[in-house]
Automatic annotation (TrEMBL), chain A:
Localization, UniProt: Membrane
Principal location listed in the UniProt entry: membrane
A single GO molecular function term of this UniProt record: heme binding
GO cellular component, one term: plasma membrane
UniProt source species: Sulfuriferula multivorans
InterPro entries: Cyt_c_assembly, Cyt_c_biogenesis_CcsA, Cyt_c_biogenesis_CcsA/CcmC
UniProt protein name: Cytochrome c-type biogenesis protein CcsA/ResC
GO biological process: cytochrome complex assembly
Amino acid sequence: MELTQTAPQESFFKRLSWFDWLFAAFLIGGAGYALSLYSSYMNVYDKSILLAAVGVFSILGWNWKPIRPLMIGVAVLSMFAISNYHGDLARGNQAFFLKYLFASQSAIMWMSALFIMATLSYWLSLATRSEFAAKVGSGLTWAAILMGLIGLMVRWYESYLISPDVGHIPISNLYEVFILFSIITSLLYLHYERLYNNRQMGAFVLPVISAAVGFLLWYAFDRQAQEIQPLVPALQSYWMKIHVPANFIGYGSFSLAAMVGIAYLLASKGILASRLPKLEVLDDVMYKSIAVGFGFFTIATILGSLWAAEAWGGYWSWDPKETWALIVWLNYAAWLHIRLVKGLRGPMLAWWAVVGLFVTLFAFLGVNMFLSGLHSYGTL
Amino acid sequence: MSKSSATFSKSVYELMSSMRFAISLLTVLAIASIIGTVLKQNEPYLNYVLQFGQYWFTVFKWLGLYDVYRTTWFVTILAFLVASTSTCIYRNMPSMLREMRSYRELASENSLRHFQHHAEFTTHGTHLEALIQYLTEQGYRYKQRALDNGAGTLLAAKVGSVNRLGYIFTHSAIVIICLGALIDSNIPLKIEQTFGLKRIETRDIPESQVPAISRLAPNSLSFRGNVTIPEGASADVVFLNIGDGYMVQDLPFTIALKKFHIEHYSTGQPKMFASDIAILDNATGKQILEHTLTVNHPLIYDGVAIFQASFGDGGTKLKMNGWNLFSASSKPFDVNGVVNSKTKITADNQQYTLEFTDFRPFNIENTGQLPSAEQRNKDARSVMVGNAVGDKSNLHNVGPSFQYKVRDAQGQAHEYSNYMLPLLVDKRWYMLSGVRNNPGDPLHYIRFPLDQDRRLDGFMRLRGMLLDPSTHAEIARRFAASAIQGGNVPVDVRTKLADSTTKVLDLFGKGGYQALSDFIEKHIPAAERDRAAQTYLKILELSSFEAYIMAEQKAGAPAPKADEDTGWFIRDSLNSISDIFFYGAPVYLQLAEYDQVNASGLQLTRSPGENIVFGGSGLLVLGIFAMFFIRERRLWLLVKPGQVLFAMSSNRKTLDFENEFERHKQRISAIVKD
């Protein structure tokens, strides 16, 4: 018997390493530096959100160790990229590091390439049962997230270089939120990968991210959607910064659950069953993902209605996007009821989760493509 | 009888509080909600008639599909959801609360052995203290009970009971949210309508003439209405759009619009719009406060929230040149108009009414292309439309435009949208005028070419010449003379050419290309039609050049050069003249000057239910997180001399629970081993 099993567990703080503390110090330092530079431009909400972010990201990094190098990497490389601009947008196409790596569009292209490579690695791993290929897949996914986040950070900065009044957080249109979707879904996946110590689900989850990347590339090359657009008055609100990411945690979780649902359905028919995690594990991931998604989707919808009460004069207008958000919500509410109260398991719920993806997809994309209404910011 | 009614009400209660019923309701609600997203809601009824035809329009109207979310049947579904959720709470809350408090310390040894998750350990000595310490460390609260026979102790422990509160919170939240929304809904108004106490107004009459039965008192519980106020004017009412009509909501105060501001980005999209408003006392007319209202920053006064919603034209004064398109005269006449009002003109001895509908000082278009119907239908002037992502690299401000309808004596109208400034299309300058017959149709553009002085006069003179039959013979004579030069040509060749030219000009002057084509189809054998058409076009083009020379001469303008530019000008002019026959109005209005007056669109709401809804929403979030992220687990340790029975249960069977059971089993086994 190991000693730790009988000895009282050490307290959470005692288990933190020097790197954990260094990470927290890094966050505090960063927030302090930002405050020293910009506090005169920030209102009390900006400041409190900045300080809350220090706490949230410290705890996130302490509980999920790979977040620490990721965040430090994003911060350092983004700062490096920004300093390379010398306040001139044109340098994005001239300076070597910007043109080939860190200009927002270059970084996003890298992200896209890395996600596709990660998908291929996971597939290779599934086909050959190679643990090494799966590890490469995880590594590539982390790298893609790194590049994607740098791309968003630099894009944020670039929007201010276009003109100070154009500058805004890059989550305001369909192009930008697709990047956000890819990053959030892959982070959620990596979380479950670590939690269940199983990399085989990547072969199913990464394709949905690759599909998003495919859309992103089409949108950029065919429609020139990568151009930064100024914000219309209705979007100039603090609510956007929290409403949109919360929504995408929901969308990402639901997509992940659906992809795991597909794995479940295959495995329950005996296809790839020996290569995939046990059915109970797949079922558990599906449930957890939907529960997390449901929580955040609820928050996002409520934030949206708070914003609508400020911008549109009413917290609920039965606008197509709102209504479809409600439909998505009702769908997963029913799913959770059946599973929790009836205790139902098995292929039926997996099928339902897969169908849920189409409902979610319609709420996310279909509404913008086929229906008109108040949320026409992301028209195709 | 009473027995059967008791069983009936019992079975209703059973049904209402059942899971099956709740899930069916969620599904029905979701499906019903889809209808209103597929069918655009609250459009003018005329649009629906055009879309579905009279029969289906009536059917859908009866079903309430044009305002689904406020129909009785939809509200009934919601009411059932609230009733079902309420009975569910009523049915389950007592046991939930009991469960939260209880430790289930009365569990018998036998029942623990029947648990799916249990384990037994044989021990030496007693480990009660160590086990209690372990439970506390693990965050469990426990109750201790000595067994009845005195032969041991039962530790009944649990953690995460707050999970049960999650159930109560979420389900109460749904009821609270629906009740809050009920307060803000128009259900009371609908009831008044049903009993004939209120009626919607469908006539287009001034607000002051709207009768009391269609007016709502300032103390209405809740409302959400709109009003458009021109600069310098004020309003003490808002309009509630209901079905195919409206109601007038009187306000407890007056809003005056002093000035409207708008700022644009360099790309032309609106960056900021704001209204300088003042709130005035209804009784005294005294100003109470001044405020600058912007999007996303409503003003709340006297329990009414005032929002900047949109902007539009508040009666811009327009000065126009009217060109009579079918007269031989090439001089314009003056037309004066004001947006949102009418004026009368006479052309070709017919009375026409001009209804000026809108003026836009900016138009952001993709230059190099004619504006598409889709772009034209997008109005960037409301908070409630977004900016479409797309190729905006060619977008430029092409200047002001104005919209009007021309209504003839029979009441038939065409709608027009004219740009004030010329547009460069395919390297040549044109004045553009869009026309359509129905409000929903795309605009068809007619382009009037500009002469080398970039003015419309050249085209108008040429048009006057070509549409005047009395000049055709002279044009034809000159054309024949210039086309067939040299003395040895027989006279009748020239005469023949002149005659056919006159014929072509006459035909074109009566009905453009269409008349020419009709003539060819009627009189020329099929095999020769192509050649004939080409010849006619050639004659028309070349003789038009002669006509242009004559027209310019008559006006005292310098003679046009015989170069490629003039060639294009002639071709464009002919196309344009041919289009005039389909233009629908005998007059083209060219905007010369304007004096802009803005109007601001405000939305006013009173929604006392809002805070209830948001309170319920907060409760919902708390409940969801309590339900999904706090797991309730129960743990029993039956400690007897030489033996420990360990059992666990949870209201949710998850993988985490399995793992936790295994962990506790190992740890407890280690504790009791020593």
